[in-house]
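Case study.
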Amino acid sequence: MTRRRVVVFVIIGFLALGAGAAMWRSIRQPAPDPARQLGAGLRCPACQGESVADSRSPMAAAMRDVIAAQVAAGRSPEQIRDWFVQRYGPEVLATPQPRGVGLLLWVVPAIVLAGGLGLALRARRRRTRPRTPATMVDAGSRRGAERTWNLAALCLIALVVGVALAGPRLAEEQPRAAPSAAADLALARSLEQQGRYAAAVELYRDVLRRRPDDQLRLRLAFALIRAGEAPEAARVAEQVLAVRPDDPDTLLMLGLARREAGSPLARETLRRFLNRAPEHSAATEIRRLLEAEGPPR
Amino acid sequence: MNGVLRRFLWPAVALLAVGALALTLLVALRSPPDAVGEPVTVASGTTAPALTGRTLAGADFDLTALRGQIVLVNVFASWCEPCRTELPLLVDAERRWSGRGLRVVGLDVRDGPDAARALLDETGAGTLTVVADPRGDTAVSWGVRGVPESFLVDRDGRVRQRAQGAITAAWLERWLPPLLAP
Amino acid sequence: MSGQSVIGQLGTAALAVGLVCAVAATLLWLRVAQRAPAACGPSPSSPARRHARIATIATLAAAALTCAALEWALLRHDFGVRFVAENGGRDVPLYYTITSLWAALDGSLLLWLLILGSYAGLLGRAVPSHARQLHPWAMTVVSAVLVFFFALTYFAANPFRAVQPTPADGPGPNPLLQQHPAMGLHPPLLYAGYIGLVIPFAYAVAALLAGSSGDQWLRAVRRWTLVAWALLTAGIALGAWWSYAVLGWGGYWAWDPVENASLLPWLTATAFLHSALAQRRRAIFAGWNIALACASFLLVLLGTFLTRSGAVASVHAFTQSPLGPMLLGFVLLLTVAVIALVGWRAERLAPGEPIGAPLCRESAFLGNAVLLTTLTAVVLTGTVFPLVAQAVTGTRAAVGPPYFNRAAVPVAIAVLVLMAVGPLLRWRADTPAALARRLIVPAGAGLGTVAAVGLLSRPGPAALAAFGCAAFILAGAIPARRSRATSPRRSREYAHGSISDRVNTSLIDDEVLDRRGPAGGLRAIARRAGGAAQTLVVRRRAYGGRVAHAGIALVAAGVAASSAYPSATEQEIGVGDTITVHGVSARLVAVERRSGDAGMWVRVRLALVRDGRPAGAAAPELRYHPAREMTVSVPAIRSAPARDIYATLIAVAPDGRRATLRLAVNPLIGLIWAGAAITALGGLLAVGRRSGSRGTRVDAPPGGSPEHDEPPLPARAGSGA
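After joint prediction, the assembly is written out as follows.
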């Protein structure tokens, strides 16, 4: 029996020694990659909730390069962090610094831990005392019950009325924002498919006001042509062409618009399109169109 | 006394904590979301960081050489869609205000020179002075958050305004003339 | 078509009917509660109760009808209905059309209503015999919550509103929600878990309202809480799996606000399950129980507010909606009400008996409650902090994984240590020597694991501790049978042990069976061999806890391994080139492009080689969805028990000859999913029928020897783990 116990002790001691050594080795190991660790502690300013180390955004890549260069230059992690805070503000830190409001992050859990431990200790020390017998609430008189019931009904109705009044008001206050552009675009596209071009034009204009974009302008131009407003379409396409000279899609749209509007410039524009992009998916069709109208004079 | 305290102290503390949390959450909820389409503009007053390097045209560039002029530094790249709409505006601005001391400098971030030149040609901004920043370290030292971003540097070499997101003609109208006034 | 379509009108009408029925149900249940004779409560079949039950069933029917109407509208592509116009799409596959009911806020509220209504309907029928007078109060609370959510849906987020003009097609649900079949399971499971926590909340409030200071309400909610907890566990794990398999960043948990919001009630519910268990032994947890049960549901609501209001930025969050302020208002209303009630009944919640000996299982349970509450505080503070910082300083600070890793991981490891030691402690009092004997094998396993892993590799102290704890817990959960039963020393120990001592070692109570001397042990083994399944059924409550602990240990090991030995590389390579990481290499075979009606995709074909042997093929993709203007990266995962090979396509060069790839090897990540499944299973196993009249019958194993039968003990001390 005693021998057995000695053996067990030796084994446990041996294991504990090994575990201690392993733990010591783990704690003592140098930070594997200081640059990566620094990157993980910085927030990518161009992204949502991603660290510089994880983000794929080019700015984050640039920041990683800068971190690597500064680490290679022998600057300490604190210095590098400060350098970034100086330029990007304290928001760049993935964990707020433990000062000011940032202190809350550590103080609140500490208070909860202390409070919990206090309660637990109290539970240990508390004297036994007679427990209140498990009585039910006195049902009270019928009148009392009636009154509570009425009160509860009133509260419930107040809750419903409150939600009813606040709901629409809050909904107005916060108009639907970001995703509506995509939804509107889908709607506009489906309107075009239904042949309701005028409605689609309105929708495209609405989206364009919120988010200027040349591709979208071209789509607007196409919808305008189909809605029978070719001169307007040509104006839109010209605007885009001013920004993107010689862009094949724009030239195509401008040419079509001018052709539809009966402009003499149409042929020349479409030729320019064919010269720029002879491989374009619409090129064959346009070539056919131009040939059908006869040779250029 | 002790009983009363025990009975009311803890609920009162708990209610206070809940109330404080609720108040801050409400304040946070009330703060308006960022306006769509307008760049986020931040006033600044710090000395502009160094901006040196080789331009796409092959010349050496140093921002300090432009002291005494108003410089609009625009950070862009060919991989950034909104930059495309912004570049013609910059060319216009330089044409319009150069007589009053405005210089426009583009900083081309993490980009190949060919792609950047193609973008400039496409948008008719071939005349713009553009400093290449292939590794992006200059942009990072300027604290650039994303592309495009623009900085207005005054005659004393201090950053006066910075705008995150594509700037508009209205933005230039608003912030440039006060700086250009001698 | 004037205004709404028929389906839209039907749905709106059903919502209105549901609202009215919920109000009626609340008032009717309140009437039942008030008519309750103080002593025993009304009979389960009084007319008043029947009326109230009918109102509850009608509410459930209305909720089911609204869900059916919206589902029907989605399937019919009725784009005149707002929700369908915003989330439906003609080229969305049938499965994802069905799941798009919960792919956006308004529809998910209908699912919420349906689940809440189902719980109300089930709870309305289940009148606990020992807490009959609490039942109508609890039903009143559940019905009031239903009223709020019906009102919220009807007035602020009615998905049936008409759209003018009617579009011909919709954008379809968010592409991220169309990538993985888990979409059909994860939200309903998570919701079922969330909403199930309304029942402990309702009974806790009922106990406060009725002034019942006993533990009847705990017995009434035990099984409900276990089911909700198991569902929540499964839901959270599925969410992590979905994140791992869809988002393509290679991780499964990012301390994102939405993930945190699901973790918060899980933590408090876990603490509640344990403290409720202990309360039935010793009346020291009365206050803890009320607080934890209420906190769990309030945190569910708070999490819903945080994620549905757009208040916190998150990849998962639904967009900003008017629901935020109202949810916040409701959470506050309930919180204030609960605090006021607790203050009012404070006298009855004061702990009754002290814990005598410092070394006993009660102490472990107390420590567990304190630590889990602290963990909740850490996660909650980190989640809410950006809002607080914005309100105070005006700038929106971020709280990222580094904070949670630094603050939460040490607490979590302390919880693991308690998990390892706690179940080996005895109730009421334990001696260090006896404990040491019980600890020797598990502790040896834990230390050995730490030594072996730590000396062979360097995973970092936290991961090393987690490995050690996992081994400790697993070794403690698997009882050593034969050696103990045949050891003469143990039989002597048994002979001296008191009967109550024997009964009190509940989580390790099959040791009870073993310590019966050589003959008894053999008999026990024979009996076990004959009726292993029967034993599992009889003892499933004890086994449930053990299985759940083993599951958590596996999760801890998986999390530690996958975060301690990460290896990933990102590189741009050409066709025919190879990217290598940690013994795994992937050769880029081809780049394929295709475009169709539903968008375009680019796929790269990879040939994988591990340690010189072919390890199959992988084909990560990039999909572009024009309707949402979104590009989604679909990772390719080759799973094996020891490691996952995880390939993500990041970009493809315009010429189609080069591609940027991320290749990662994630060791032991499968342990997380397996462990979570085992944990949830353990929770379900523990849903044994113990309480009430039938419980005693099941408790006594048929054919048990007299020495095995439990003596008639007071109810509280007699119940198992």
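Observations recorded in class. Chain B touches chain C through 19 residues (CB under 8 Å). DSSP finds five helices and eight strands in chain B. We will return to this complex in the next lecture.
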